[in-house]
Design a protein that fits this description.
The chain is mainly α. The chain is 49% helix and 7% strand. It binds flavin-adenine dinucleotide.
Length: 265
């Protein structure tokens, strides 16, 4: 049988290795399904890369790659670009110094107990939560992008990415249905953070007991009481969330300060 090497990790931390592995998969795998990018697809990619370039909290060589990709996309006079041009930039064919993104996956907090479980989709959720938290902490980071002063901007950009590019089509259909229902009511960046948390818990409860569930990572309401005791309350014997505490917890858990580089390439 295949030997699975288990990497010890701390569930209260975020791992650079997961976020960078996710970006690698997104930029070199998921986007590659689109041989050419034009029209609404290209606009979606540009906005998503802009959000990443301004808000991704990781290491400098990855940030520089995202900024370079964003500037290149913004400067293009073309309304149609081949995916291979994006790939050349991601692979740093121009050899601009200080740019690097790992070209293999190394899951840590997102590792599964079998190879087909967890991994990319886990890292994508983490990336999305990180982006909503960063946008709340540093709203000025989006100045000059056309996405500033709009508390829904990051969520709507994530929504368009998922609808257009996310390889799991059933996932994107479900997500779009929820977004259509309730994303429009979000009025502040705090609400945007909580909207994504609530929606993620909805997905967790829908998938509990599903074949895709990793037995080592059961689908339960998150954050569990061991991660955030203050998030949980009981009113007349019925569980309820303390949203103020949940918000504080999300801001801490998904902040750049909670990222650790252990196992990162
Ligand atoms: P994930 O749900 O991937 O979560 C990753 C990590 O985020 C967890 O380990 C935990 O640390 C943290 N977390 C958990 N819950 C929350 C929360 N509420 N708020 C903040 N952080 C949290 N799979 C399907 O089979 N069908 C679908 O319809 C489907 N829809 C999806 C839609 C989207 C937008 C995405 C990104 C993924 C979707 N998936 C779907 C995949 C699925 O949600 C999981 O990613 C996958 O099953 C792996 O689960 P996991 O155990 O790694 O935890």
């Amino acid at each position: 049988p295949e030997v699975v090497v288990w990497r010890e990790f701390d569930r209260s931390k975020l791992y650079t290795a997961d976020l960078e592995s996710g970006l690698h998969h997104l930029l070199r795998g998921e986007l590659a399904a689109h041989k050419a990018l034009a029209g609404a697809e290209l606009r979606t990619l540009k906005d998503f890369v802009t959000v990443l370039a301004r808000l991704f909290p990781g290491r400098a060589p990855v940030k520089k790659l995202l900024e370079t990709l964003q500037e290149w996309l913004a400067s293009l006079p073309l309304d149609r670009i081949p995916y291979n041009a994006v790939l050349d930039l991601v692979n740093n064919k121009m050899r601009i110094s200080g740019i690097f993104l790992t070209n293999h996956v190394m899951w840590v907090g997102c590792q599964g107990s079998r190879p087909e479980l967890r991994g990319y989709t886990c890292s994508l959720w983490q990336l999305f939560h990180t982006l909503t938290v960063e946008a709340g902490a540093r709203p000025e980071a989006l100045d000059g992008t056309g996405l500033e002063d709009d508390p829904q901007a990051v969520l709507q950009t994530i929504r368009r990415y998922v609808r257009t590019f996310f390889g799991c089509r059933a996932c994107s259909e479900h997500f779009e249905a929820v977004a259509k229902e309730s994303m429009g009511a979000v009025k502040t960046t705090d609400r945007a953070i909580l909207w994504l948390w609530e929606t993620h818990n909805l997905v967790n409860s829908r998938l509990a007991g599903h074949l895709s569930e990793d037995p080592k990572f059961p689908k339960v309401p998150w954050p569990t009481p061991d991660l955030c005791p203050a998030c949980h309350e009981e009113i007349k014997g019925v569980h309820s969330w303390n949203e103020g505490q949940v918000l504080l917890f999300l801001k801490q858990h998904y902040s750049g300060d909670n990222l650790v580089d252990t196992y990162a390439a």
